[in-house]
What we know:
This protein is an all-alpha fold. It contains 13 helices and no strands.
Amino acid sequence: xxxxxxxxxxxxxxxxxxxxxxxxxxxxxxxxxxxxxxxxxxxxxxxxxxxxxxxxxxxxxxxxxxxxxxxxxxxxxxxxxxxxxxxxxxxxxxxxxxxxxxxxxxxxxxxxxxxxxxxxxxxxxxxxxxxxxxxxxxxxxxxxxxxxxxxxxxxxxxxxxxxxxxxxxxxxxxxxxxxxxxxxxxxxxxxxxxxxxxxxxxxxxxxxxxxxxxxxxxxxxxxxxxxxxxxxxxxxxxxxxxxxxxxxxxxxxxxxxxxxxxxxxxxxxxxxxxxxxxxxxxxxxxxxxxxxxxxxxxxxxxxxxxxxxxxxxxxxxxxxxxxxxxxxxxxxxxxxxxxxxxxxxxxxxxxxxxxxxxxxxxxxxxxx
Length: 368
């Protein structure tokens, strides 16, 4: 067993405890988690805030005591504190250790990079990689997504992008960064076909699937706002509209095929982006556009609801929470699915030993 983090089986038990709180104190969950503990979402946010306050305080003390080398020294101190909470106290996704770990990684990387007074581009890439590594260490999807977004800004800065309106060194920087975001979202979407042992890996991919297409659209909008003209950039006009539309189509298809929510949420966001870009397609007044497209959405939703009253490939619009037996069955199935299975272990039935006992022939042999 790896004591540096919960095993995949223990993480599945922690996921069960977080999903159904009434089972947290059950004996099966306690045995399955093997001493690892987690908290609910609100407490996790509060602990993360407290951890960030503690990290800032430690960094300030190290800055006063060690001056220029405070980044590495403070980062190492925070790293040891975070690892103590994980390894020593066996905390998983509790918030405080996540704040300490991510601050430690960022300080150490910045301290190493700025030893020779490196430029801002190296610092941007270093911070992005540090956030991604910290997110992988604590298996936090928010940190890995923020790291991917920060990496997109680092790419933009390396290509000459500036936030003050100056002309970039390389033309169409925003377009290339937007393409990077869409490609990363596509990789995460296609990687979702694999079944991972850890639920946290699925959540990290889901967050990338939802966030990165929106970032790709945001970068294309930034390109559009910097001197973009529809009449002279026909290719870009199609790119801005078709990329989110294509991702939404693939996301809906894969969501229905896999029965997962993340591609569907990403598709909803991409459809909203497409709708915003096509707001002037008909040339009708705003009131008539709202009435027309709202009516179309109402009719489409009603038709879909009627069709899904009968279960189609496991998808239905009927409510399932009216029957307690359905919920009980779902809990049993969920427990079964997250229970680790060892295909190499074969349980042999215990043979029954017959015959009389060794005392008075009455079967009282003392063997049970």
